[in-house]
Amino acid sequence: MLKFGEYGFLNWGLILLVMGLGFSSSAQSSTTQKDYINKWKDEAVRQMDMYKIPASITLAQGVLESGNGMSTLAKKSNNHFGIKCHTDWKGGRTYHDDDEKGECFRVYDDPRDSYEDHSKFLLRNRYVSLFELDIEDYKGWAKGLSKCGYATNPKYPELLITIIERHDLQLLDTRDWIDDENGFADKSNKGIRLHTSRTFHSVSTTENGIQFIYADNGDTVEELAEEFDMMKWQFRRYNEINKSHVFRKGEIIYLQPKKANGFEDWHTVRGGETIWSISQKYGIKTKSLARKNNIAVDSHLRVGMKLSLRWKLDENGKLPGYAKLLGGKQ
Fold first, then answer.
1. How many angstroms separate the CA atoms of 8 and 122, rounded?
2. Mean pLDDT (whole number) for 181-195
3. Taking the CB of the first residue and of the last residue of the chain, which one, N or C, has fewer CB atoms within 10 A?
4. Which domains does the chain have, with CATH numbers?
5. What one-character DSSP code corresponds to residue 9?
């Protein structure tokens, strides 16, 4: 668990999420960093005009701490910066587990109120040294936030700087840019130079709460580990693959461990499927899937056979009585 000081919160899953391009309950509804930036860049610039905080910093923090605006706190409470209640808060409240169980977080009527509150928070004496920096010194601001205690994660400055440079957000601080559907265009050079970057993966979440991406052709564990700031062994362990595994386009790659139960009750086996391929489809560990169905992990599956994804079957392949009492259906 990574925690951001007394102000906001951010767990490891959220970091993984934003180092891709988005977050959603399904791939079809995913929101990317670019989507978030296009939606909130004007508000970030407005906050810069009012409070002299670099728009690039505000926007990168919004991307990082709200999971591209798709975190539960952002969607349900309009809280894009993980702002906790504190004793002086008189508005709406919601409760989530963070540093402690059931901590209080602010609820806003509009996300813009969250941006305003974020700016006012940085006006505290604790952050006064930041305002001695040049407003165009986004690296200094990123590192200064960490030094002032905003974030306990030592990689927090690096995460902000990566987002800023990936999307050329520093141009917002200079106002030497024009808005273009492909990104920001720098007006300071001869002609107009569009800033582009390589495509990053969009992160989605399964119905049982596991973050994942879809593989592109040529993806390697080494490249993915660098993109998501993870260790190579994590990809292998979370996806139960060996070092020789080659990702195919469209294959699910989990960024978090799979769980003991799938998000559906049953799966009917189709031709060519294996315990592993089914476990990847539903985010359930292979050993758990095999154990529930009283079969070996390397078993050959018959087309048409039904596998339980939630309940352990008895020796006759039937649901036990307790499962039926809890709503399980054969």
1. 12
2. 43
3. N
4. 3-194 (1.10.530.10), 260-330 (3.10.350.10)
5. E
